[in-house]
Write a structure and sequence with these properties.
Elements lengths: L16 H4 L7 H10 L5 H7 L10 E2 L4 E3 L7 E3 L7 E2 L8 H12 L1 E4 L17 E3 L10 E7 L2 E5 L18 H9 L1 E5 L32 E8 H16 L1 E4 L20 E4 H30 L2 E5 L4 H5 L12 E2 L14 E4 L3 E2 L11 H10 L14 H4 L6 H9 L7 H18 L9 E2 L3 E5 L3 H7 L14 H4 L1 H5 L10
Parallel strand pairs: 11-12
Antiparallel strand pairs: 1-4, 2-3, 5-6, 7-8, 7-10, 8-9, 10-17, 10-18, 13-18, 14-15, 15-16
Helix pairs in contact: 4-5, 4-7, 6-9, 6-12, 9-12
Length: 499
């Protein structure tokens, strides 16, 4: 009997979810917060002023003074004295409401996708119909959001089930945003990860976090870290590529088909693509999803009058945990790969056990090629899913299609993956595992290379150093939303930016 795997990506089919959900009662003050936030300027107005405002309350630049990071790695660091020397004495972490809204903007539930592709346009490639605020290839929902604040490290992962086809239609729905944040986060640690500027091998001046990140992971900030798994889509797109594009993977060393030669013939597989190029494509596909997440975070912060510092420029393997002697990071585990098979020394993560396990073979979660191929193929047909007749997701979540249309879709043979495609994909995966040791082969399945750190802006830094526009007393970097932030969103607290 085949092993049955539970989904290891964020979408989980839970037919009893809607019946168990209880409305979260929020206070008048919380309701007022969301009403104010949803009544912000248009996206075009926000785009006219959006900036990466990197200096927040509690931050410092090039003071020349040593400081010890007691909140993370305990390392004592010093940035040389420079022309932008500034030390903020203010401390104002983001509120729960601010974090909840930004997390929802990043990749929170927003209803049910439209699934408006033709049946003969490969609608079967979609692995779920859970709508989020971002797009994703085949709607795979393989990207998650890790959140680091003064209370610890968290994984934000709301359920794949939906309470309505459009979740936030009016202020009557604002409670959901707070519910998803309070009840559907997973706590990873009670503290911040042991990460900071200047991290590198002992006895060297190597800076694996990059020269720009002096204030990364600082108290008072909230660090949003998108983490994506390209392993799921690696297998999923092979089904589409073989059946609909009639393209197949070739070995970059020989140019020959990767185990699927018997299907290379007219009407089946007709054009080869190097496996290295394919892995690069999947990495790029992951990048657009994360880019959308970070831009959503940036625009949400701009609307709220918060500082959004978006950045890459660091070794993402360090953040994940590939170098535990330097930093445990988020604690992701890595496999030992044979040097003979792994000619390019690709690091391969197994994921974070029990939290975010990578779709990679061989691994504890997917020991064999059969395990991973069958899992990715069948996740769309499992009980409760969108292509299942047993407690169908679309019927349960009331969208996107009318019942009679959904019935016709489920009855159509093209909704199934062809047997020969399954066999050809399986042969390809077996070939790559046997020769190179792992699939994905030429890229790490787990990526975390673009992040956003959000904070309350310390306007004193900008007032001291930056110019204003003609006729204005404040620097051009300061918007009315930033000036009014404490009044609008912290009405019972002192305005730390008042002059």
């Amino acid at each position: 009997m085949a092993t049955v795997y539970k989904p290891v990506f964020p979408t989980r089919y839970d037919p009893g979810y809607q019946e168990r959900v209880k409305k979260l009662e929020i206070t008048p003050q919380e309701l007022e917060f969301f009403k104010t936030a949803f009544n912000t300027p248009s996206v075009f107005k926000l785009l006219s002023t959006v900036r990466s405002r990197r200096f927040g309350m509690g931050y410092r630049y090039e003071t020349g003074e040593p400081e010890t990071r007691s909140w993370s790695d305990g390392k004592t660091v010093r940035q040389e004295k420079g022309p932008l020397a500034f030390k903020s004495e203010k401390h104002a972490p983001l509120s729960e409401l601010e974090e909840a809204l930004i997390a929802w903007a990043a990749l929170g539930p927003n209803g049910v996708v439209l699934a408006d592709a033709p049946l003969h346009g490969n609608i079967s490639t979609w692995v779920c119909w859970s709508g989020r605020t971002i797009p994703a290839p085949c709607n795979d929902c393989a990207q998650d959001l890790f959140i680091v604040n003064d209370e610890g490290t968290w994984l934000y992962r709301p359920s794949g089930e939906r309470m309505a086809p459009v979740e936030i239609k009016s202020e009557e729905d604002y409670w959901k945003i707070l519910k998803w944040y309070r009840e559907e986060r997973i706590k990873i640690s009670d503290k911040r990860p042991d990460l900071g500027w200047g991290a590198g091998p002992a006895g060297t001046s190597v800076n694996m976090m990059g020269p720009w990140q002096y204030n990364v992971n600082r108290p008072g900030s909230t660090w949003f870290i998108p983490v994506g798994d390209v392993g799921f889509e690696h297998i999923n797109v092979l089904f589409s590529m073989y059946e609909w594009w009639h393209m197949y993977l070739t070995d970059p060393e020989t140019g020959e088909p990767c185990g699927c030669g018997e299907w290379v013939k007219p009407g089946y597989l007709e054009m080869g693509v190097p496996a290295t190029m394919y892995d690069e494509l999947l990495t790029m596909v992951h990048s657009y999803v994360v880019g959308a997440m970070v831009q959503n975070i940036r625009l949400a912060s701009e609307a709220l009058g918060l500082g959004a510092w978006v950045f890459c420029g660091f070794v993402d393997e360090l953040v994940l945990g590939a170098f535990p002697d330097i930093s445990k990071g988020l604690g992701f585990q890595y496999m030992e790969r044979s040097a003979e098979q792994n000619r390019n020394s690709i690091l391969t993560s197994l994921g974070l056990p029990g939290i975010k396990e990578a779709v990679v073979v061989p691994s504890p979660q997917f020991p064999t090629a059969e395990d991973i191929v069958d899992y990715v193929m069948n996740v769309r047909y499992t009980s409760g899913s969108h292509f299942s007749r047993d407690d169908n997701y679309a019927m349960r979540n009331k969208g996107p299609y009318k019942p009679e249309v959904m019935e016709e879709i489920l009855d159509h043979p093209k909704i199934q993956i062809s047997d020969w495609v399954h066999d050809a994909v399986l042969a390809t995966v077996k070939y790559l595992v046997n020769k190179y040791g792992v699939v994905p082969t030429f890229t790490n399945p787990i990526h975390a290379n673009f992040t956003a750190q959000i904070h309350h802006v310390d306007l004193d830094f900008y007032r001291q150093y930056q110019l204003g526009m003609d006729g204005e007393t404040e620097p051009y970097s300061i918007t009315d939303r930033i000036l009014g932030h404490f009044k609008d969103y912290h009405p019972n607290e002192p305005d730390l930016n008042a002059q």
